[in-house]
Amino acid sequence: MAVNDRPGRLTAAAPVPVVVARGLGGHRDLARVRADPGIRVVASPRHATVLLVVGAIPRDHLEPLAVLHDQVPAPRGAATLGLTGDTTALGLGDLPALPHGDLSAALRALQRDVLAGRADRTALGRADHPVDWQGVGPHGQGGEGMMGGTPYGRMMPMPPTDGRDGLALDRLSLRLGPFLPGLPPGVALDVGLQGDVLEDVDLVVATLDDAPVGARDAATDDPTPRSLEATRLLVALCELCDLAGLSALARRVARVALDPGPAGVESLRRRLDRPWALRAATDGVGVLDDGRDVTDRWRGWLDRASAELDGRGASPPRRRDPADVAEALRGQELGRAWLTLCSLAPELGPTVPTPASAATP
Amino acid sequence: MIEVAGSANPAVAAVVVLAVLAVGAWVVAATETLVGARVAGERLGPVAALGQPLARAAAAWRRPGVVTERPDMILWVIAPALYAALAATALSVLPLGARWAVADVRTGIVVFGAAEVLAMVAVYLHGWSPNSPFPLVGAYRFVASGLSFLLLSMFVLIAAALPAESMSFGRILVSQQEGTWNLLRQPLGLPLFLIVALGVSFYGPLDLPDGDDIAGGTDAEASGPVHVVWQWARRAMLATYALATAVVFLAGPTGPWLPGPVWLAVKAVAIVVVLVWLRHRVGRVPMDRFVLICWTVLLPLSFVHLAIAGVVTLW
Lengths: 361, 315
What we know:
The complex is a heterodimer of chains A (361) and B (315). By secondary structure, chain A is α/β, with parallel strands linked by helices. Chain A is built from twelve helices and seven strands. Chain A starts with a helix and ends with a helix. A three-stranded mixed sheet of chain B has the order 1-3-2.
């Protein structure tokens, strides 16, 4: 026991590495996680100790959630934050709900139990082999020659249909998301990848025919809907900062998002709206048919957040057609495409009020 | 002249190099924590900032390694070690005291340059070995950006060798002690070399291969010791570049009153603070834009830099 506790004390000083499975809603909860210096939201589940489910998970995404769970190396912990109802419907077994008090203290306690072997969660087996090796074709993989096929349900690369800048790389077909950093909640991508260029893109938006697991009324999220809208936009900005590598500024943005005020928003504008700050990553990236780039969009979020907080009321965000976005992403480099998607978070994703019409292929 | 003290006893040399790399990476990580807390507007004392990287490393070290589907396990383990070994190689040719280096070989800048070019191999292997798409994309990115920024390093180091009339870092140091700091003689060199430092350690605005936009890039599938060594090695490389910058442009261990190694440490830490500040304030530059800027702006600028250095040396 004494042997176990010494490293335990040392690791207690470290922020808990957490991978967030972000569902719909839960903006204030996410801001709390992001703002806490005792929590480090990591980009890859491999770097995490704890899987944290924030926001309601659409039923389409329960399978990917199980895969994400298994991708956190064992011993692993898992918890929910702010979800309501029966969370066993998530398919991850019994999940502790984090309290509304000291988040990082609760996570640290969970991590301590996990590392001491008191609270491990067994793998669900979904990350291993989605389907069997298909014994067709000359090499048994189900393709032609040594190419193609879907052994274990994973698409093998195929020779490209046409080269990119004279350099022809094998085309890799992948499903990316829905729980990757920067992706709008409820959205996954089917891509044909040539090196780091998206040869082909399809946005797969979750259907909400059945209510997502853990959903709750948006009004209980925050008593004042006005500041909730500001929080929503600032959380999107926080995610964008983090995606652009500005993790410390992202924590600052998250703190403003928790308690949004006009002064806070202006201070963020001063820090971010410089050619050598966030704009180094976003200027000229992701120009869509309206001629606006990622910088214009996050400036718009700050403008709208200020307007909401001043009580001026801003025009509601427009909704984007996923097919148009997919068209704009075709031929883009992966990093640019990802920033573009992140900057469209408030305009994409399944729409909650009219579930039936939100279903998009 | 510089004494080649390390070669007398390789064991001493190895201990010195490993200690400098370990402490250097720790200083980088602690500065990162401290500056990060300031940028985020959080209160964090220097003692806590020094402790946090150790705690993080200890926690991550105890995590199990991950086995992906059909990885190249041997290369996956070798890649972080290779990258760290390259940082050690680069460090070994730098003078660490006023008259002391581990191995002040006459071809110092060639050894240093070879280490930074081979870093491309180490990063590529780290991205290739897990057999996973995002790490491989990260590996592509490092090769593409490396081809663009590594030429800058050579021109900057050759320019520094001109007044020294030698390719040894020891002679470059002595030439500054006899003349003036290269910072004044070759003003373009320092910013160009810092860009190379950020590029080779893929840090801050040039963290293209391990960016969050590809879920951690080459390191996305790594966990446990491989992950810890990789993150440590990157920061050790950054520390090595900070030391090299201090030697080449700020006359390294030269200064009044204090011993040489202390002056070198002070100057290197100042450079680390600048690099870490950039990491927390400047967003990741898009891949294609960085490559374009390298070839169309920075490379011509490094030619100009070399020409200026040549004219100043002759004059």
